[in-house]
Amino acid sequence: MSQASFSLCVYCGSRPGADPAYMEAASELGRIIATEGWRLVYGAGDVGMMGAVAEAAVNAGAATLGVIPTHLLDAEAPRGIFGDRIITETMHERKKVMFMNADAVAVLPGGAGSLDEFFEVLTWAQIGLHGKPLYLVDVNGYWQPLIALVDHVIAEGFAGPGLRSLFQPVPGVAALAAALRAARS
User: Is this prediction's pTM over 0.85?
Assistant: First the structure.
């Protein structure tokens, strides 16, 4: 398979979440990545939303790059490999390798790990380490409390108003795809 000219890093839950719309969005994003000819960069797990994105992407013909630390191999990737895989020693290295191999970042619903990943790349953008597009895929309003928190941080003087411009909330996967296409043109 030829190397894709655009790679999207997807952060999301290693669990399916309570709302079936989350898993549907994960699968839809995987299919869109393939349709667009993009490469998926993800956490290399085959569980939860992470597995759904990867499985849908691979089944639809997308190239993938999974990055996983050794200590999560048994917990998150018990069935096998979707596409190319890099095994790292630490979580920090995993996040760095994922980010370095991507042109943009999309954050689907997820838990503490997804929040950690989002805030790390947001902080890197805030201090000028990158200018990659960063999107919160706000499936059924999942990220509204986070967006309100960021607005609160700004209102309370712990960040400038420019922080809000470093990421773009989109209401769903179709809107994400449109935003990515627009950003690439």
Answer: yes
